Fold Pentatricopeptide repeat-containing protein.
Amino acid sequence: MAASPPSPPSSPPPAARPAPSNSLLAALCSSPAFLRVAPSVLLRAAPHAGPDATTFGILTSALCRAQRPTAAVDLLRCKPGLLLDPDRRHCRAVLASLCRCAPARDALAFLDDMRRWGVSPSRSDHHAVLDALLREGTAAEAYEVVAKQMDADGARPGLPEFERALRAFRENGSFDAVEEAFDEMLLRGLVPGARVFDVYVGALCDKGDLAGARRMLGCMERAGCPPGVTTFGVVVAGFVAAGDMDAAREVARETVRRGLRWDAPALSELVGALCGGGHLARARGLLLEVLRDGCATRLDASAFEHSSLEKELCVTRPRGSMPGGRRSGASRRLPCSN
């Protein structure tokens, strides 16, 4: 039987396309001029240069250090097209940089990118975005993060997150939103503490619902969170601002009847609120009564009469500031009898 002809030598497998030299890339990234063009050059060369996860990590880290997080986001959005999964660590670093250096809504949009890539935002990621939104005064978007997005990502919001949303809504005078956020908190079974109640009661006063604010003092008692002297001070300042000095005195005296005493920080908050609203002169007699009968330690009432002290107090707070936060409506789901 004739021998079969020898088979031709098999050709060697094609060489794998080498990834760009990541060590060289890291060195070049120290040049601002190179960093400006590197992302576009990399993306144009991507099908042939074969960038790997390390390549993207080097560039995104360099862009974040250069305070160019939006360029880093553009790079990360190209990874799935190159069959590279965005890395959790890099995503979180880019998100943190967006929260520091970019418009807050860019950071909010990047949360959607992370979810699409299978990277679930953590509680700390949500807090960073919440901080950025509140710094820019976008209370509605911040509340959306608290009330909806955190739950969807398995990071259930608690009292601290709701308190921040309440304060933001009070600051911009969104009384209906304060009411909605407070009710949502109660529906979730979260029991407000004194700080949250102070914000809510202050919002009622800002809104002009002084009867509701006064009722809330009783609601707090029945909810197991008896109002402290600071909460009473918020209501006192609200009545003074409304010109109802009789009601303000009555609330101040109720504070003393409950065995509460105005310590220096609480008295400072009350005076600051009155001064910030331009009502200090109107409340002079009330404050002297508090100094005489309701202070934790015996203070010299004559010190308050000194005009230089009064002026000093008036420049310590911006006009319009009030203790405990700012603005809202009345509770419907706390154990209030009326």
Observations:
- Residues 198-324 form one domain.
- Residues 32-49 form the longest helix (18 residues).
- Residues 11-20, 311-333 have pLDDT under 50 and may be disordered.
- The radius of gyration is 30 Å.
